[in-house]
Amino acid sequence: MTASRVHSPDGLVAKIGRRGIETATALADVGTWAPLLAVQMRRLGVDSLPISIFIAVFTGIVLALLSSYIFTGAVPLYFVGALVGKTVMMELGPVLTGMALAGRVGASIAAELGTMKVTEQVDALETLAYDRNAYLVVPRVLAATLMFPVVTAFAMAVGVGAGWITSVNLLDLSTPEFLKGLKQFYHFKDIWFGLLKSATFGAAVALMGCVCGLDARGGAEGVGRSTTRAVVLGCEAILVLDAFWALVLL
Amino acid sequence: MIVLDGLEKSFNGTKVLAGVHLEVPSGQNTVIIGRSGSGKSVTLKMVVALLEPDAGTVQVDGETVQEMDREQLAELRGRVGFVFQFAALFDSMTVGENIRLGLVKRGLPEDEIAMRVEESLAVVGLDGTANRYPAELSGGMRKRAGIARAIALRPRYILYDEPTTGLDPITSAVMDQLMIRTRDLGVTGLVVTHDMRSAFTVGDRIAMLDEGVIRQAGTVAEIRATTDPVVRQFIDGKPDEIAPAPPVRRFPG
Questions:
Q1: Which pLDDT tens digit goes with each residue over B14-30?
Q2: What pTM, to 2 d.p., does this model score?
């Protein structure tokens, strides 16, 4: 994609900006989006728990083994707990969960809305006097913003737990030693930093899915293209936001 | 009454509409005919602001659609029903839920909604299908469900986008009967089609869209008796003259 296409009035940045503003405006139409919010929270959040927990388990295991490999002979081994805790809570928990959900949630939103767009269901919705942003975009963006932190919190807990079990069973480390490392460098900010990031990841992933889905044209192939674009843009947005929050809050 | 005044629209530099003027009188079915790609559906979508014209205006009951704010547009869409070419039913909802959706938005009480769903399905002959999903219906049934969704709102106008396209002759005739029946109920119809049999059956007035403008508009009798060569060719269904095909090469063996 060329820079001019990205920045032109019909380009990607303009579309995302317009959709963002329209979505914010549509927040006032509570009667339309509120009844749909719980369903989207379940679909985008609760149903995403298995994949995020799966990723967190293996992240915790690898981090424990990796840090043990790095620290052995140089740093006391209880630092394994510190590294697992800090990394899972502040970076890998939110980012890996966000990436996985960019695939699952972003693709699902783009495919669903894209199919609705090319089969004129979105137009039909408007002819029934519904605002497309209030009915389709707001509940998805809000649900993802609220549920990504919940899913990430589970991932953090499971990741640290997997690191602890690995340390106790595979490394020469006891539970008190692991906890000593975990507590020694723990700040409450570690958790809220990760959860705040994940909320913005959720908003970005859902918004990209909606922008790409509602921009779909050209039948099944067009829906496929929009879906791929939503996942790529969702992942890129996560990385940009990750750097932004690191710059702003650390 | 709906008045289309000088509508213009281009897509990617190609002018589709070049100044469409048309009056749609109340209580009648007006049919817009024209070749595929002549901008009939684009015109129809401008009436309910699904598309914005580059120039010109649409007036419904004296109000200019292009000047309406969100609330006014929502109110307009309550007055103007739209039947889509492929029905555009929400495939994750049952037929009954599809019809309910517009009624819920209007804040009607639950018993009124249930009554209107049942009544509109009965009008289109789809009693007992409220709990079925669109995927379980035939193409003709889906289009009838689309009409049921539109008439449940008790609109003053219904816009039909290619209502008989892709249907067998009997199902097309059923669709024609439905359009006549809704007109007889006092609903003004604006129908877009290239099916001349349907146009002559349901239309009180017919307008031909050609090269981005209304080439001719008049009563069914006037259109039947037209001397305009383009309109005559279209209603007679005569093909354009094409260059003769090159001789067929015969391969030995």
A1: 999 999 999 999 999 99
A2: 0.86
